[in-house]
């Protein structure tokens, strides 16, 4: 299996690039943000618990997202591989993902990290908020909280994956196609 983590702060372009990558490489897209938003829309117990945290731009508890990912991965083990988008976001999530994949006889192939400066992230998210209907894209204070959550809890994953020799930075500015081509070049070396 080819299992890719598409990494980066909110607004780095992970969702956009994942859509293009799954098509080219026939991978399954697992976005914990998308899964959580569908739970919120369906007003499940899990969705009701997560909504308040998501609307504030705080991370939801590790157990919740780890449980969601486990059931999605286990039910798609016949796939060519997965793109993890927005997961893992904490060291505990990364450890749980490694343990789950190893239990299932596979592992993370690589992590590609989209780099975009903070001013550009805020601009992109505010812009997306005009039509995304997402409360967490509409307000600069919430966006800054999401970036702070990334800096405090998610950025430490860089070291975690560097230690495993699986971390590559990809310049995340420029046209969507330019960024996509950079990602593909890195993937083609490994695939
Ligand atoms: P995203 O669509 O990836 O920007 O995620 C939107 C929101 O969902 C985040 O701000 C968090 O509240 C929540 N979320 C998504 N993925 C995770 C995760 N892996 N761990 C914790 N919270 C998450």
What does this molecule look like?
With 191 residues, this protein is an alpha/beta fold. The protein has one domain (4-177): Rossmann fold (3-Layer(aba) Sandwich). Helices cover 59% and strands 12% of the residues. The longest helix is centred in the middle third of the chain and has 15 residues, at 118-132. The radius of gyration is 16 Å and the shape is globular. Residues 10, 32-33, 36, 53-54, 57-60, 65, 86-87, 89, 93, 136, 146 line the site of adenosine monophosphate (AMP). The site of adenosine monophosphate has 17 residues, from α2 and α3.
Quick structural gist:
The protein is built from nine helices and five strands, in the order βαβαααβαβαααβα. With 191 residues, it is of the alpha/beta class.
Task: Write a concise keyword list for the protein shown above.
about 190 residues, alpha/beta, Rossmann fold, five-stranded parallel beta sheet, 9 helices, 5 strands, binds adenosine monophosphate
CATH domain class name? Alpha Beta
How do the strands line up in the largest sheet?
2-3-1-4-5
Low-pLDDT runs: none
Proportion of residues in helical segments: 55-70%
* Strand runs, count: 5
Mean of residue pLDDT values: 96
CATH architecture: 3-Layer(aba) Sandwich
Examine the coordinates and then state which fold CATH places here, giving the name of the CATH topology: Rossmann fold
- Give the helices and strands as they follow along the chain: EHEHHHEHEHHHEH
User: Major beta sheet, specifics?
Assistant: 5 strands, parallel
Radius of gyration: 16 Å
Continuous helix count: 9
How much strand?
5-15%
* Overall shape: globular
| Ligand inventory | adenosine monophosphate
The CATH H-level homologous superfamily: P-loop containing nucleotide triphosphate hydrolases
Query: Roughly how many Å apart are the termini?
Result: 9 Å
Structural class computed from helices and strand pairing: alpha/beta
Tally of distinct domains: 1
